[in-house]
Design goal:
With about 260 residues, this protein is of the alpha/beta class. It has 7 helices and 12 strands. About 30% of the residues lie in helices and about 25% in strands.
Amino acid sequence: MPEHATIIDTHVHLRGSHDPAAVLDGAVAHMDRHLSRLGAQSGMCVLMLSESADEHGFDRLAASERPVGRWLFDSEGEPMSLVGTRDDERRVVLIQGQQIATANGLEILTLACDTRIPDNEPIRDSLEQALTLNALVVLPWGFGKWSGKRKGLVLDLLNEFGPRGVALGDSAARPMGLPDGPIFARARELGVPILPGTDPLPIAPHQKRAGRYALWLEDRLDSWTPAADLRERLSEPLPGDSTIGRRDGVIGSVASQIRLRIGK
């Protein structure tokens, strides 16, 4: 039973259709449930952003001088971290990061990073560029994106880039109860970290999704440089019991994709 637990969602979007204050309120609510399950006396919630080229939520909140809902924001000792404090003293740490769309139909996350690389490049070129940044580089699971011909490509990329420091990303949208499959199995064989996150979609039910499926660390993060601390800690395989929360069922996962396509 830990005294303190840091809850980290490693794949978060501040969607333009979502109220950022509601996103953070939801994250705190999920954190409280996780802390209760762990029996922790105190905790901290961390949201690692992976913003697409048209998403600028981190910059908007960093520039905000007025409350956003019940939240005020202050920068930490590094440019890519931001602390939101609610009027009841609840706090959430936001870590800047990017989501890169590649020409192969797959995505790359550069987490704890404030530098963007171009979209729509061949994925091997994008990974090579990403590895030159001071970033935590992740190949995230995506609905339908690790199947067919791309499944073999992801396995090849994992074998090639996993030993060089590229992690895999798991998602709350990956249907619970289905087999993990060969990609996650190979990552475990190679000792490649698997980082869980929610990856909220731009649909109404996902506005308060952040923090639902995450990982937890018993130790506190460095309060001055949390992004740098996370880059180091999450670059190594995590204990098997570090994932917390739950993924969607098959029906819920498919329903979210239908809502996405009809714009609800």
